Structure formats: structure tokens, C-alpha cells
């Protein structure tokens, strides 16, 4: 009777979806980390707990990737890259750096996508259960408390890129000084003669967004310029959010003479909206971005932007992770470190001094926005 029930349960579950490590944990009444330890044959699990977990695995028909796990004890190092980045341009550069560096060290790099709002913690546990000895976390997951807590509880080394969450004991980090970079770009626009400078904020769940906003505001304050809240528009580091933010800033009674966006995607969207309004970039409106991804040089005019060395950051993150894993295998301790790489302000064709004439306003007529130039 019990055997028939087990098969029925297994078949029913498989008809819906493949069971996950979290499903096993819920069935057994333990944490996903405990399930991972049982799967990997670790000794620090009580016999009674191990039996409950194995029973849940059997009942659900959960099948761990044993081939991948067996590599963990072999010579080759296996690391995972967990991503959920809205900017394809940023992610592509990060992948190039990570894959190149992993190849140089004969390291197996597994890439896994997840939704930061829905299943980030589950995917992190899944990578660990598959034998990943360390995890790379590009933004926004580098600032996800759920993912960082999951990796800390599993005692899994991680390297966070462009992160402010540096208090975790197993997390190293690679970043630039976002505050100084945003401050430098704002000072650059001020030096051109701009006094009314709009700013598009990135995703507020990422520490870098707050730091870039602070750099912008402090630069204006130091120059004795006003920083009204109407000149700060919300964004999410996506092109779509950049369109909305640009509409908001260019819909003001008196529009800014320059807009500084927190990444190139949103800056490119701002250029598109400006063109739609009949504004010349940079004659009527200077637009600057952040990151210096491939997108910065594929639009017209090419973007003035902050060069964030994404490929180099990815390579450095792989090196930090490999060093920590090798130290663990050797039974030695490798302290977590925070590497701060240099940024560069790259000037191209999207910025210029403001024209010496009355401010440009956007007037609304019959539901449409038209540009009025004096």
C-alpha cells in the first residue's frame, strides 16, 4: 500500500512540475540548507533528520544532479553565476569577463537566471545543491538580502559585484566608487555652464543608486546650485523606465538643460524622448549616462558616460572566488576582500555648454507636447 501511494505522489507531483529543494525542505520540515547537506553527504546532520529528508526525497521523486555534485571533490572548480539584470548590455559585458577568466583557470562556470522578487533564494540553494563551490552575484542580486542570507547559511563563498552589502562573512566584493563617479559627472556638467541638471535614479533596491544620487546632489550643493526634487525622476535601470523618467523631466514647465541618467539604458531612452520632442542633443539638451556599455556608442549622438570597467570587475570577481575556494580546499583561511576599481569619465558627443538664450519650455497643446524655443 505504501509503495503504491509513493508512486502516486511522485507521478502527481511530476505532472505539475519537477520538485525543488525547497519542496523537499517543506515536506521534511527542515531548511533547504539541511536538505543540501544531506544530499551532499555531509556528516554534520543528525541521523533522524537525515532519515526524514531522505524519505521526503523519495516521496517527492526529487533527483539531485549527482554528476555535477561529484565534480566538487574533483580537481576542477565549479562556480555559479546567478543573474537577474534588466540591462542586457551590462550583463553581456559581465558574462564576457567571467567566461574568459573562468576559461583561463579551467574553471566550470554555470549561469543561472532567476527573478529577484520570486525565486532568488531557491535558485541560490539549487546551485549549491548541484555542487557549486562559490557564487558570483552581479547586480541587483549582489544587494539581495535573501540571496546573501541563503549563501551565508550554506557557508558558500560569494563575490558581490557593485554591491553595498559587505557585512556578510563569506562575501567579497568588487566595485567602483559610485558616489565619486556621479559627483565627477555632475561637476563636469556644471563646468560646461549647466545650472538646471536633471537626474534619473536607478533601482532603489540597489545601493549604487543611492550613492549615485548622493554624488549628484552633493556636487550641486558644493557649487551653490539648487537641487529641487522636481529634477529627480525615478528609474529602474531599464530603457522603459528611462522613457518614463525622461517624459517626466521634459514635461516640466522649465525643462533642464542637461539630464544625467544612472545608466546608459536610461540615458539612451532620454535621447530618444528628446528627439521625439524636437530637441537637439546636445544643442538643446545634454544627456549623460553611466556604465559605458556597448549601447553608449551604438546610438546617436554617442553618449558621454562614466566608464565602469565591467569586464575587469567580472574577471577580478572570478579571481577572488577561485582564490577563496582553493584556500578552503587547502584548509587555510582566505579573508574576504573589497576591491575598488577605477572609473573614467568618457566624453563623447551628447554633452555641450547650454545655449545662451532663455530656457526651453515644453508647452502642451491639444493633448500633445510641443517644444517652444526662444
UniProtKB/TrEMBL annotation:
Signal peptide segment: none
Coiled coil: none
Entry annotated with the keyword Transcription regulation: yes
Presence of the UniProt keyword Membrane in the record: no
Protein name per its UniProtKB record: LacI family transcriptional regulator
GO molecular function: DNA-binding transcription factor activity; transcription cis-regulatory region binding
HTH lacI-type domain boundaries: 19-73
Keyword vocabulary terms for this entry: DNA-binding, Transcription, Transcription regulation
Region (Disordered): 1-20, 350-374
PANTHER family: LACI-RELATED TRANSCRIPTIONAL REPRESSOR, LACTOSE OPERON REPRESSOR
All copies of domain HTH cro/C1-type, residue ranges: 20-60
Biased composition (Basic residues): 1-16
Amino acid at each position: 500500500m505504501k509503495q503504491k501511494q509513493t508512486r502516486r505522489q511522485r507521478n502527481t507531483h511530476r505532472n505539475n512540475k519537477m520538485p525543488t529543494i525547497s519542496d523537499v525542505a517543506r515536506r521534511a520540515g527542515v531548511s533547504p540548507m539541511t536538505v543540501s547537506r544531506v544530499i551532499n553527504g555531509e556528516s554534520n546532520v543528525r541521523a533522524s533528520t537525515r532519515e526524514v529528508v531522505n524519505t521526503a526525497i523519495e516521496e517527492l521523486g526529487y533527483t539531485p544532479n549527482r554528476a555535477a555534485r561529484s565534480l566538487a571533490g574533483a580537481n576542477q572548480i565549479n562556480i555559479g553565476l546567478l543573474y537577474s539584470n534588466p540591462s542586457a548590455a551590462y550583463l553581456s559585458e559581465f558574462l564576457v569577463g567571467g567566461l574568459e577568466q573562468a576559461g583561463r583557470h579551467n574553471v566550470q562556470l554555470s549561469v543561472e537566471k532567476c527573478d529577484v522578487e520570486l525565486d532568488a533564494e531557491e535558485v541560490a540553494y539549487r546551485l549549491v545543491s548541484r555542487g557549486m563551490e562559490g557564487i558570483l552575484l552581479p547586480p541587483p542580486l549582489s544587494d539581495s538580502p535573501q540571496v546573501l542570507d541563503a549563501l551565508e547559511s550554506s557557508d558558500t563563498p560569494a563575490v558581490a559585484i557593485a554591491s553595498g552589502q559587505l557585512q556578510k562573512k563569506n562575501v567579497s566584493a568588487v566595485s567602483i566608487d559610485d558616489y565619486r563617479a556621479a559627483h565627477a559627472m555632475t561637476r563636469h556638467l556644471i563646468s560646461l555652464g549647466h545650472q538646471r541638471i536633471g537626474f534619473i535614479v536607478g533601482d532603489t533596491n540597489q545601493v549604487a543608486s543611492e550613492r549615485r544620487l548622493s554624488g549628484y546632489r552633493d556636487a550641486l550643493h558644493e557649487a551653490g546650485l539648487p537641487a529641487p526634487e522636481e529634477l529627480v525622476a525615478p528609474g529602474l535601470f531599464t530603457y522603459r523606465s528611462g522613457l518614463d523618467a525622461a517624459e517626466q523631466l521634459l514635461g516640466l514647465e522649465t525643462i533642464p538643460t542637461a539630464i544625467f541618467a544612472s545608466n546608459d539604458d536610461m540615458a539612451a531612452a532620454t535621447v530618444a524622448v528628446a528627439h521625439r520632442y524636437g530637441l537637439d542633443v546636445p544643442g538643446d539638451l545634454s544627456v549623460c549616462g553611466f556604465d559605458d556599455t556597448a549601447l553608449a556608442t551604438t546610438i546617436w549622438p554617442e553618449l558621454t558616460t562614466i566608464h565602469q570597467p565591467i569586464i575587469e570587475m567580472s574577471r577580478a570577481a572570478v579571481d577572488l572566488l577561485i582564490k577563496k575556494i582553493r584556500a578552503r580546499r587547502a584548509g587555510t583561511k582566505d579573508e574576504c576582500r573589497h576591491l575598488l576599481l577605477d572609473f573614467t569619465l568618457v566624453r563623447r558627443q551628447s554633452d555641450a555648454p547650454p545655449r545662451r538664450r532663455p530656457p526651453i519650455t515644453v508647452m502642451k497643446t491639444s493633448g500633445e507636447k510641443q517644444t517652444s524655443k526662444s
